[in-house]
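Sanity check

After download, print the first record. It should look like this:
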Amino acid sequence: MDEYKSTRLDELFAAVSDGTRRGILARLAQSDARVTELASAFPISLNSTSKHIRILERAGLVTRSVQGREHVLSLNAAPMAEAAEWMEFYRGFWEDRLAALEDFVLKKRSTDKLRGRQ
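Expected structure tokens:
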């Protein structure tokens, strides 16, 4: 994985590692919102909400448009596709491991049953 992609994934995972930021993303998935609307939905200050929003913007998950004095935020879920692709690579690994474990357990169970009958 190249350095640019790695840095983007680091920023994305850091951004979604916080519950408040995940809450902001969930709210923006419903519709665009003004910064003040978002701030009123969480038990933190406007300043703290703004800091969370900046982290989400840096990760590319939120875009901001300025309409007069209002700052309207929108969800940009595209960067999540890259993270999903990264995780999908490991899904095959874990599915293979779990299938091997299942085979082992089933074989062990059948050999234990055979031994118990003798």
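If your output differs, re-run the checksum step. Summary of this record's structure: The chain has a mean pLDDT of 89.
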